[in-house]
Amino acid sequence: MGLSGRFAVDFPGLAADDLFAIASDIESYPSFIPWCRSARVLETDGNVRQVENHFGAGPMDMRFVTRAQADPPQTLAITSEDGPFRSFRLDWTFREGHVEARYHISLRSPLLQGLAAFAMPEVERRIVSQFRQRVADLHGV
User: How far is 127 from 134, CA to CA, in rounded Å?
Assistant: First the structure.
């Protein structure tokens, strides 16, 4: 059980390297990922980073650690079984002019799982909108 989905965004003329750089700039997530209060790289081992995350909105406040495995500039896989997650996986893929993300989320709390199911369409909309804005801010596209 869990939530699964996908979202994609096109950026004609923008290189995969540029798009990968935005998604892999984890410590900048608070500036463009909805409800991200902080993201701090704890450890780096080659293309793998352990990241401390802090997300919240209103009374909701979650801290958890993720593992970010990069294969530049094609993919970035973010996973966790920490904090509220039974399992979390977000797979970014990049090619020239295109970003796609697939996710699967299973939360430990049935209440949080229900809230997440209700909120995911808005979360996806905001991520796409704010990712577009981040690309525009950095690349004028």
Answer: 10
**In contact, 58 and 67? CB cutoff 8 Å:** no
CB 74 within 8 A of CB 87: no
Domain at 3-139, CATH homologous superfamily: START domain (3.30.530.20)
CA distances to 11, 12, 18, 62, 136 from 140, in Å: 11, 12, 12, 33, 4
Q: How far apart are CA 127 and CA 74, in angstroms?
A: 19
pLDDT digits (tens, 9 = 90+) for 12-22: 999 999 999 99
Per residue in 79-110, pLDDT (tens digit) is 999 999 999 999 999 999 999 999 999 999 99
User: pTM of the prediction?
Assistant: 0.92
Tokens 């352990």, residue located? 50
